[in-house]
Write a structure and sequence with these properties.
By secondary structure, the protein is α/β, with parallel strands linked by helices. Helix content is about 70%, strand content about 15%. It is built from seven helices and five strands.
């Protein structure tokens, strides 16, 4: 057995007896310190695994960033194309607005032409209808008013108006109003009696204004002639409302076909 007299002897004894060295190590270092190398090795392994994972994550992140950059570049290209398309659309819309404005102008002109043409047609139809009424007036007056010896006195109307104005029976404004009358005629009742005077407005379709004009102008003519005058509207058609208005104004509705 080795005698231990100094530290060198002690160290030599530990070298010669490994179990002593292990026992001393355990006593001096303790279990925590003895486990430290193993724990450090495990830590190193975990760090290596973490670093490897981070490398993979970084690679994936870089790949995603590359894709995002590519997508952004494509988006910029798409936006530029959209802007170009929008500019083209704005140009097209401006052109469409110009075309629509031109179309509106054309339509307005067409409406004006159509209204003018319609007015000419209406005037022509109305004129033809008035001529027909005058030609067939004796028969119309006999059938609807029971008078004979019918005479159209439109040609005499200006002199009648002038005489009435001279006598102060009507005003000049009323005289002018009478001049626009469509038809004035006279006749003798079949049953006998004084001459009757009829003032008629002629219209293919009876309107409120036709009834009103006939009533007002007949009243003026009655003042001018100092005798009763029958207001009438000669028309092809008159609805029930126009007939009711005529009755309320004591205006006679005479319906006669236009064609």
């Amino acid at each position: 057995m080795t005698t231990i007299n100094n530290p060198d002897d002690f160290l030599k004894a530990l070298d010669e007896n490994p179990q002593w060295l292990a026992a001393v190590r355990d006593r001096i270092l303790g279990q925590e310190l003895l486990n430290l190398p193993a724990r450090f090795e495990a830590f190193v392994q975990r760090m290596d695994a973490f670093i490897e994972q981070q490398v993979i994550l970084n690679k994936n992140l870089l790949a995603r960033m590359d894709r995002i950059e590519a997508d952004m570049a494509q988006l910029k290209t798409d936006v530029a194309v959209i802007k170009t398309d929008i500019t083209g659309m704005k140009t097209d819309i401006t052109g469409m607005k110009t075309d629509i404005t031109g179309m509106k102008t054309d339509i307005t002109g067409m409406r004006t032409d159509l209204n003018a043409q319609t007015g000419r047609i209406d005037n022509a139809l109305g004129s033809n209808y008035e001529n027909k009424i005058i030609r067939q007036l004796p028969a119309i007056a006999g059938q609807h008013l029971s008078i004979r010896n019918v005479k159209v006195i439109n040609d005499q109307l200006p002199d009648m108006i002038y005489d009435a104005q001279e006598k102060g029976l009507i005003t000049s404004e009323q005289g002018y109003e009478l001049l626009y009358t469509d038809l004035v005629f006279s006749g003798n009742p079949r049953s006998g009696g004084p001459t009757r005077y009829i003032l008629a407005e002629i219209s293919i379709t009876a309107s409120d204004s036709d009834v009103t004009r006939a009533s007002q102008r007949a009243a003026i003519l009655a003042d001018a002639l100092q005798t009763s005058v029958t207001p009438a509207v000669i028309c092809e058609t008159a609805d029930e409302e126009r007939k009711a208005i005529s009755a309320s104004h004591n205006v006679t509705i005479i319906q006669h076909p236009a064609f």
